[in-house]
């Protein structure tokens, strides 16, 4: 936690916190609780490190919010934005006009995304976020089935504890009950099945493989309950991110694919977190052998430097859509030239540094090995990874994976200790999760694991002090 020479004076940080409390509504935040302690002011960042206004250097184990895959301080991304802003900061693409960056980016993404069953992802619809991209998906799949002469196919099936965004449609697709409770969600036409979370939903003696098949069959049961002729699509994250890095057993996705094929329903792979090298491939569907019709992306397409999202559309859908007249949908910033220019520079950088390959062949296997060893800590029940995402379960009893009472909020305590120790981890209930920048070296991974271990020690010491251990 070395202080730096770029410290904001403490008085100005305090002033900023006061202004923050007075005016800034934060996402997913209890504002009274935040005001009581003041938001941590992050001032600058470089590589895998962020600095706060009190001079703490913190290893960013979450890549911002699962997005800064190329790390901080990449000058060429700033240069790409600067150049494009001076050349053409904005022009719309609504009225028979186009601009160069989104055209080139759509073509590039179409090239990067491997075909499924010989069918290419020929087209891209751009948005500014993952939420808007999933809203687009809701409209797009219903439009597709209308054009196919099956307008009764409206229902989209998703999963509990999935996260697909915060707009009304995206929050409805998501399976976060706390979100549904605010504002009468989900909207009609969206159904949920249980998630493939082995550690919570397995039956006694059930193997992960058997559980994976059983969990996938919940989709088939739901399709039959609704009536296959009414089901438009199934949407899922290859690995659930915000839900707590829920990694499905290897048998899950092949069985899901068999089911969507059998009933002819569209498959949407929400890769807002999982794409762009996160799991060791440009797209996660490659890793799992999934054959999606639509792929949602956002976040790391620009390494988070500017907002951009979108939907990759397979030719099965694109041909119908493009031949079907006007699709009455679009955003002012669909294909924003600056965002697309930054994305092009980011993809070039990732390709030059072979980040997906480096993750696949070197850093992810190393992380898997180092992270698994965290299970030796007295507080850790399970420690698992998939590419460069990882999650561990804090437990009271290692043998039975018995959990702590929810009201003890042990995850939140651990998260606070992580910050104090100098590493960002996120807490989802009793799961502690990471998604570090893909530029990490093995030495960086060692540093991160050491910091996590120390934060776990501090959490354990707290529990002991409170007589809870
Ligand atoms: N889908 C997934 C899988 C996500 O993880 C997120 C964001 N965490 C979203 C969609 C929503 O993206 P955004 O926050 O850019 O709207």
Describe this structure in words.
This protein has 469 residues and is of the alpha/beta class. It has two domains: 10-70 and 355-465, Aspartate Aminotransferase, domain 1; 79-352, Type I PLP-dependent aspartate aminotransferase-like (Major domain) (Aspartate Aminotransferase, domain 2). Helices cover 42% and strands 14% of the residues. The chain is built from 17 helices and 14 strands. It has helices at residues 10-23, 31-37, 63-66, 75-87, 100-112, 130-147, 168-173, 177-180, 198-201, 208-226, 252-263, 284-288, 315-322, 337-352, 355-372, 410-421, 442-465; strands at residues 42-46, 49-52, 57-59, 123-127, 155-159, 190-193, 231-236, 266-270, 294-297, 309-313, 380-386, 389-394, 426-428, 431-434. The strands form three sheets. A seven-stranded mixed β-sheet has the order 4-10-9-8-7-5-6, sandwiched between helices. Strands 11-12-14-13 form a four-stranded antiparallel β-sheet, with helices on one face. Strands 1-2-3 form a three-stranded antiparallel β-sheet, with no helix packed on it. Helix 15 (355-372) runs parallel beside helix 17 (442-465) and helix 16 (410-421) packs across helix 17 (442-465). The longest helix is centred in the last third of the chain and has 24 residues, at 442-465. The radius of gyration is 22 Å and the shape is globular. The structure holds 4'-deoxy-4'-aminopyridoxal-5'-phosphate (PMP). Residues 129-131, 134, 163-165, 237, 241-242, 270, 272-273, 298, 309 line the site of 4'-deoxy-4'-aminopyridoxal-5'-phosphate. 4'-deoxy-4'-aminopyridoxal-5'-phosphate (PMP) binds at residues 129-131, 134, 163-165, 237, 241-242, 270, 272-273, 298, 309.
């Amino acid at each position: 936690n070395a202080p730096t020479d770029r410290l904001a004076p403490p008085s100005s940080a305090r002033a900023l916190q006061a202004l923050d409390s007075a005016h800034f509504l934060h996402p997913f935040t209890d504002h009274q609780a935040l005001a009581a302690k003041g938001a941590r002011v992050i001032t600058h960042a470089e590589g895998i490190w962020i600095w706060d206004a009190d001079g703490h250097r913190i290893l960013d184990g979450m890549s911002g919010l699962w997005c800064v895959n190329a790390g901080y301080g990449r000058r060429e991304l700033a240069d790409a934005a600067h150049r494009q802003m001076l050349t053409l900061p904005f022009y719309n693409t609504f009225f028979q006009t186009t601009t160069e960056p989104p055209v080139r980016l759509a073509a590039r993404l179409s090239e990067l995304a491997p075909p499924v069953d010989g069918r290419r992802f020929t087209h891209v619809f751009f948005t500014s976020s993952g939420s808007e991209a999933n809203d687009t998906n809701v409209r797009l799949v219903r439009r597709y089935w209308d054009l196919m002469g099956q307008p009764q196919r409206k229902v989209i099936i998703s999963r509990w504890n999935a996260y697909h965004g915060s707009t009304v449609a995206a929050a409805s697709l998501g399976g976060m009950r706390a979100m549904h409770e605010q504002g009468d969600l989900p909207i009609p036409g969206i159904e949920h099945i249980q998630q493939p979370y082995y550690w919570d939903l397995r039956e006694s003696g059930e193997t992960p493989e058997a559980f994976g098949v059983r969990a996938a069959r919940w989709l088939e049961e739901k399709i039959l309950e609704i009536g296959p002729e009414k089901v438009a699509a199934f949407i899922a994250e290859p690995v659930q991110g915000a839900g707590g890095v829920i990694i499905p057993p290897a048998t899950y996705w092949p069985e899901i694919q068999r089911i969507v094929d059998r009933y002819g329903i569209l498959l949407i792979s929400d890769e807002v977190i999982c794409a762009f090298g996160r799991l060791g491939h440009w797209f996660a569907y490659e890793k799992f052998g999934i054959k999606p019709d639509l792929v949602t992306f956002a976040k790391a397409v620009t390494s988070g430097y500017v907002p951009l999202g979108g939907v990759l559309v397979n030719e099965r859908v694109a041909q119908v859509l493009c031949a079907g007249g006007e699709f009455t949908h679009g955003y002012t910033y669909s294909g924003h030239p600056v965002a697309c220019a930054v994305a092009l520079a980011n993809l070039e950088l990732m390709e030059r540094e072979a980040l997906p390959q480096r993750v696949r062949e070197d850093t992810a296997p190393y992380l898997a090995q180092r992270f698994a060893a965290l299970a030796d800590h007295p507080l850790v029940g399970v420690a698992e990874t998939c590419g460069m995402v990882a999650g561990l379960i804090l437990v009271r009893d290692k043998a039975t994976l018995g959990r702590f009472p929810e009201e003890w909020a042990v995850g939140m305590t651990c998260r606070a200790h992580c910050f104090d120790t100098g590493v960002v981890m996120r807490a989802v209930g009793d799961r502690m999760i990471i998604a570090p920048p893909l530029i990490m070296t093995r030495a960086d991974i060692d540093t991160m694991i050491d910091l996590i271990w120390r934060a776990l020690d501090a959490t354990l010491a707290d529990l002991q002090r409170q007589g809870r251990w």
